[in-house]
From TrEMBL:
Reaction mechanism of ThiL seems to utilize a direct, inline transfer of the gamma-phosphate of ATP to TMP rather than a phosphorylated enzyme intermediate. Residues 24-135 form the PurM-like N-terminal domain. Mg(2+) 1 binds at residues 42, 118. InterPro entries: PurM-like_C_dom, PurM-like_C_sf, PurM-like_N, PurM-like_N_sf, ThiL-like. Substrate binds at residues 49, 253, 307. Keywords: ATP-binding, Kinase, Magnesium, Metal-binding, Nucleotide-binding, Thiamine biosynthesis, Transferase. Mg(2+) 4 binds at residues 25, 40, 70. This is Thiamine-monophosphate kinase. It catalyses: thiamine phosphate + ATP = thiamine diphosphate + ADP. Belongs to the thiamine-monophosphate kinase family. GO terms for molecular function: ATP binding; magnesium ion binding; thiamine-phosphate kinase activity. The keyword Lipid metabolism does not apply. Its EC number is 2.7.4.16. It comes from Acidocella aminolytica 101 = DSM 11237.
């Protein structure tokens, strides 16, 4: 099947109205009236972001969800996406069928459609990119640079499951319930929370809690202190014991939100998050470094702060 047959068979059925049946040279999108557009792009590369044997449906969904998480960090709601695929000849049709099934599933869950994309071939590894387009009320996008000294640091959900899940998928630790593996393969982006006017800064955790907190600190011209024992962890992660603390704090792939919250807004934050757990883990302060301390205030030495591409 050549590129054009493949687009028609697999991708045209996923197209949103703005995608014009994938029949024109580009998409034409009418932004929701009175809203600002929010644009983000992230890649999924075989061997870097996913394992060659991973279920293609889950690869597709994680591709969308990693981008949806960036929209969530901006306080934006999603509209749709552009997709690029670079596939080697060896990829069977069954891979593509599963891949588009995953896309369709998350399109329906998150209410998004496909606007268009680009298809090319790859010599060896699979390369995938999604550009998500969302919208936000004018001036309400959540910045990384708005934190103030004294703002409390909150995270959604639990931290560290995905990094442990990757270890499990690579056979380096046991995951009897499958929960850690699930969190590594299929993150839950926190889209739809109404955080504008409540949080002073936001970022999603992709590289690891400590490194991404460093990005908020740099953006806001501050330092921060967090208490390691306060970082929320799942029952499954807790069962592995303290040996995995550093992995949890720096491993990344969490796609939870890390938020700066003025103390007087904490009740409003909890209200906005409803049943989604949010946990206070520390505070912003004058300075420029991220300190991780134990309950007794002892500083923790981390050998690595988080994921970085070379
Ligand atoms: N190759 C690139 N070209 C242009 N902008 C980039 C590139 N890579 C990253 N950025 C921008 O740099 C910032 C940080 O990127 P990144 O670390 O990928 O953020 P995130 O973890 O939220 O995906 C974002 O504003 C992103 O748009
Ligand atoms: C095979 C494999 N190895 C390693 C990882 C872990 N990993 C890869 S990239 C990454 C950080 C997030 O990816 P990045 O491309 O930096 O996304 P962004 O920060 O731009 O959202 C992590 C934790 C993985 N998910 N899969
Ligand atoms: Mg990125
Ligand atoms: Mg991000
Ligand atoms: Mg990154």
């Amino acid at each position: 099947m050549d590129e054009f047959a493949r687009i028609a068979a697999y991708f045209t059925p996923l197209a949103a109205e703005a995608g014009r049946g994938l029949a024109d040279d580009a998409a034409v999108l009418a932004p929701p009236p009175g809203r600002e557009l929010v644009l983000t792009v992230d890649q999924m590369l075989e061997g870097v972001h996913f394992l060659p044997a991973d279920d293609p449906a889950l690869v597709a969904r994680k591709l969308l969800r990693r981008n949806l998480s960036d929209l969530a960090a901006m306080g934006a709601l999603p509209l749709g996406y552009l997709l690029t695929t670079a596939l080697p000849k060896t990829v069977p049709r069954s891979w593509l069928t599963a891949f588009v099934t995953g896309l369709a599933q998350d399109q329906s869950i998150f209410g998004i459609g496909l606007f268009g994309g680009d298809t090319s071939s790859s010599r060896t590894d699979i390369g995938l990119t999604a550009t998500l387009i969302g919208h936000v009320a004018p001036g309400q996008a959540l910045p990384r640079n708005g934190a103030r000294a004294g703002d409390r640091i909150f995270v959604t959900g639990t931290i560290g499951d995905a990094a442990l899940g990757l270890e499990a998928r690579q056979g380096r630790l046991a995951d009897p319930s499958g929960w850690l593996t699930r969190r590594s393969l299929l993150p839950d982006p926190r889209v739809g929370l109404r955080l504008a006017g409540i949080v002073s800064a936001a970022i999603d955790i992709s590289d690891g809690l400590v490194q991404d907190l460093g990005h908020l600190c740099r953006g806001s011209g501050l330092g921060a202190v967090i208490e390691a024992e306060k970082v929320p962890l799942s029952v499954e992660a807790a069962a592995l014991g303290p040996a995995y603390l550093e992995t949890r704090l720096t491993g990344g792939d969490d796609y939870e939100l890390l938020l700066a919250v003025p103390p007087q807004h904490i009740a409003a934050l909890r209200e906005a998050c409803g049943v989604l757990p949010v946990t206070e883990i520390g505070m912003f302060q004058a300075g420029s470094t991220v300190q991780v301390v134990s309950g007794s205030g002892e500083p923790l030495r981390l050998s690595d702060l988080g994921w970085r591409h070379f």
